Every structure is written in C-alpha cells, then in structure tokens.
C-alpha cells in the first residue's frame, strides 16, 4: 500500500516521500508511531500545503551534508589490523569496519552508505571509500590500512602465557595438597593401629 512519510524513517525515506510498503508494516509499525499516513487525496493535499516547510528542512540537510563532506575529505582514516609479513590481512576491512571506525571519531555514517572498491580491503595500503551522504552529496574518504605492530601482537600473546603458567601452578598446588592429605590419612591410620595394638596387649 502507498503511504506518505510524516518524518524521516531510517532505511525507508524522508518526510513527505510517498512509499509503497507492505500493509502489515504500515499498520503495525508506521501508523501506530505516526511515522506515516495512508496516501489519499486528503493527505496529498495536506502535504502539498506543507511542501515549502519540508523543502526548508531539506535545504538544512543539504547544507549539513556539504559541511560533513568537507570534514570527511580532509580526514585520513587509519585502520590497524593484524597482517602477515606479505601485507595480507588476517581478515578484511569492510564497510561495517569503516562505519565503526568513523563512529569512534564522532561520525554517524550508515554501513549501506559506504562503498569500497572491490567490496573489501584485504591487504595493507592506501585506499579511497565513497560515502553517500545526502542526495547528490558524496564524499571520497582516504583510508590507510596498516599492519598491527609486532609489539602489540606480543603484548596480546603474553596474557595467554601467564594464564597457562598460572594454570600449571594451580595444578601443582592441587597435587601438593592431595599428597599432604594422603600423608595425613596415613599418619592417622598408623596412630589407630598403634592404639589397637596397645588395647590387645
């Protein structure tokens, strides 16, 4: 069914857009939250009267997108990942990786708005990602993928070694406690045997 959006709806559209959606989605989600209204002659006339107001809000979005584009294109995003001696990554940089790294810097860019050449980066190097911001506003983001320094890899490996040593120490302590317990039991048995012998005498 056709609906008109009352406000911007993530992954669907903007305020004033006419969208064709499933009836269940409209009745169970959009309408109860006042995110959309059925598209008919009455609602079309209502949104036509709000056209100028909606366009003003879109103009603000365009202005914000232009500012964001400038910020992103003046930024070089560095992503550090484990890699082999030949520079091949243990894993891959995806658009979700880029989205997460940008979020750490305060930029909220949806994964679906980020396009990577070849879909993923699998080696260290310099790349460019295309970010679709709003309408025609597109930013080209420079990305540098670097290998994780050896010192960090070693630091990550050390806790595991310490954990193993600690585990081995626990096992040794447990064995020692078991031996002491066995010795104590043997001593008690000897005492009982001596007392029994004295009684028989």
Structure summary:
This is Large ribosomal subunit protein bL9. The chain is α+β, with helices and mostly antiparallel strands.
Describe this structure in words.
Helices cover 50% and strands 23% of the residues. The protein is built from five helices and nine strands; from the N terminus they run E-E-H-E-H-H-E-E-H-E-E-E-E-H. The chain has a four-stranded mixed sheet. A three-stranded antiparallel sheet has the order 2-1-3, with helices on one face. Strands 5-7 form a two-stranded antiparallel sheet. The model is unreliable at 196-201 (pLDDT under 50).
Give the helices and strands, then pairings:
Elements: E1 2-5, E2 18-20, H1 23-30, E3 36-38, H2 41-49, H3 51-73, E4 77-81, E5 88-93, H4 95-104, E6 114-115, E7 121-123, E8 125-134, E9 137-147, H5 150-200
Parallel strand pairs: 4-9
Antiparallel strand pairs: 1-2, 1-3, 5-7, 6-8, 8-9
| Uncertain runs | 196-201
Distance between the termini: 105 Å
How many beta strands in the DSSP annotation? 9
Could you give the order of strands across the largest sheet? 4-9-8-6
Helix tally? 5
The pLDDT mean sits at: 82
Oligomer: single chain
CATH architecture of the domain at 73-148: Roll
Overall, the morphology is elongated
Question: What composes the largest sheet?
Answer: 4 strands, mixed
Helical residue percent band: 40-55%
Q: CATH homologous superfamily of the domain at 73-148 - what is it?
A: Ribosomal protein L9, C-terminal domain
Strand and helix order: EEHEHHEEHEEEEH
Instruction: Output the structural class.
Output: alpha+beta
Taking Cα atoms only, what radius of gyration do you get, to the nearest Å?
34 Å
**CATH topology (level 3) name of the domain at 73-148:** Ribosomal Protein L9, domain 2
């Amino acid at each position: 069914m056709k609906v008109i959006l009352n406000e911007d709806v993530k992954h669907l559209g903007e305020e004033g857009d006419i969208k064709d959606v499933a009836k269940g989605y409209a009745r169970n989600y959009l309408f109860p939250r006042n995110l959309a209204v059925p598209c008919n002659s009455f609602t079309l006339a209502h949104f036509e009267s709000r056209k100028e107001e909606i366009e003003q809000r879109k103009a603000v979005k365009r202005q914000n997108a232009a500012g964001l584009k400038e910020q992103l294109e003046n930024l070089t995003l560095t992503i550090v990942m484990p890699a082999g001696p030949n520079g091949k990554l243990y894993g891959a940089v995806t658009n979700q990786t880029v989205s997460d790294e940008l979020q750490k810097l305060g930029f909220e860019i949806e994964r679906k708005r980020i396009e990577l050449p070849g879909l993923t980066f699998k080696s260290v190097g310099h790349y460019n990602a295309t970010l679709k911001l709003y309408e025609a506003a597109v930013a080209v983001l420079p990305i540098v993928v670097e290998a994780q320094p050896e010192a960090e890899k070693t630091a990550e490996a050390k806790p595991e070694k310490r954990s193993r040593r600690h585990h081995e120490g626990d096992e040794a302590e447990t064995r020692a406690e078991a031996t002491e317990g066995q010795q104590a039991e043997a001593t008690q048995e000897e005492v009982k045997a001596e007392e029994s012998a004295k009684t028989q005498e």
